[in-house]
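Figure S4 source data
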Amino acid sequence: MADQNSALPESPPDGSDSGAEPNSGNREAMNYRKKLRAAEAKLEAAEKRVNSLLRVQVESLAAKELSVASDLFDIGGASIEDLTDPEGNVMPDAVDAAVKALLAKRPGLRNGSAPWGDVGGGRRGSVPDSSPTMRDALKLTRH
């Protein structure tokens, strides 16, 4: 029976596996998994930055008509995907259409540059001032 057991490979007493190939394959796969996770994290961070920049660009276009540009997303329900082409570029026509659709439903969101109009404050035109001045008063007292 001793001959039958001698055909089986014996593992070293320290518990390490004598075959280096399974361990190196596992290490290599583990390294690839780590690299993959790092690349996925970088890709996710880059996508967030790009979406943030696209949102800023869309909001700058929407600010021409809306008093609060983020209302296009928050109230209007627009998304970056709706306002960009397949290459990821912002489409100004789509932004304008989305703003107009939002203002048709909610006209109070419009950017009002002067809500009061002319209220009569300040100086008017070039009408000469005919009221007496201090100089006129002094002229009268000298004579």
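Figure S5 source data
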Amino acid sequence: MNATHPATNATHPATPATGTPSDPATKTGAGTGTGTGTDTGTRTSTDPATNTRTRTALTVHQIARPTGFPAPDHFRFVESPVPEPAPGTVLVENLYWSVDPYHREMMDGDFELNAPLEGRALGRVIASRDPALEEGEIVFHRHGWRTHAVVRPEETRRLPHHEGVPLSAYLSILGGTGLTAYVGLTRIARLREGDDLFVSSAAGGVGTATGRLARLMGAGRLVGSAGSPAKVAYLKEHVGYDAAFDYHAGPVADLLAGAAPDGIDVFVDNVGGDHLGAAIGALRERGRVVRVGTVGQYNTPEAPLALFNHADVVEKSLRIEGFLVRNHLDVQEELYEFAVPHLRSGRLALDETVVDGFERIVEAFLSMLHGGNTGKIIVRDASQTP
């Protein structure tokens, strides 16, 4: 952890790596570019006092507040010695990192400047000073955008061993992304068999998870919006959506009316704005809106707010409810029980865009904000490359 060794830190601008994440029309891809670190994110350097080689670690700091879309110069890679765990803690070498839309919202004030960024990560315990966690265990934690993290056992969650389930799934369909979709469908929408759904940003992590889980739960017609013809095709050909449209192709209300001429029962909203307005108009009596996020405003805060006929909410007895997945962590085991058998049987597939190398984590994040991913975007340490 950098704060432990402030005198030895070296900083590197977050210059984007060459290349881009894989083709968003594929379920899983691996980037091939190079960047400002080694493949593993662990560097070696020479100690001038002893002329010996020492291992170093990398973290990512936010160094400025963005206006609109973030850029590489809002971030900096910071180099420091690999930290030593204190009594009651363990040292985790991270293997997978999650980059999520909510990070953009937090960049406006929640993240502290010139400090390591928070985020979900999976890693292996490589040094333990607490008997609660043994070396070699794989854990989930939220100490995020760094190659190494010192954590207390209570800040981690041991990953269950589900044979045949890849580690990346615990950041996608079995992680916060899948849990968001599952809670939205079961706790907020209270999905009923045969319900017709509309999902905005349907080709993203939560959108693909929502479509796949809803289909397994017996949903009726699934309609999604996405940002390109390739993503529209992916939703229909791979995820199980009955209809989908590119929201750039015209007014969302008209596109939704064409895709769901008989209306919808549930709207799972990741976008807000004109998608929310269109969906409220299309909802049937006792329809439900599940508010997950407002990604349409994260980078363009001046974007117009949703416009809709407020009388519809009363006259159709609509329910609009938002939630934070952190308030539903008690549902995690239930998600495992539901999803793991379907993963093993092949009925539930993973929708992931995988970018290789910690040095590309900023690039992966910025690519996601510009729609460069299909499904959940995950950064993978080179040691985990098949």
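Confidence is low (pLDDT under 50) at residues 1-11, 15-54. The first strand starts at residue 10 and ends at 13.
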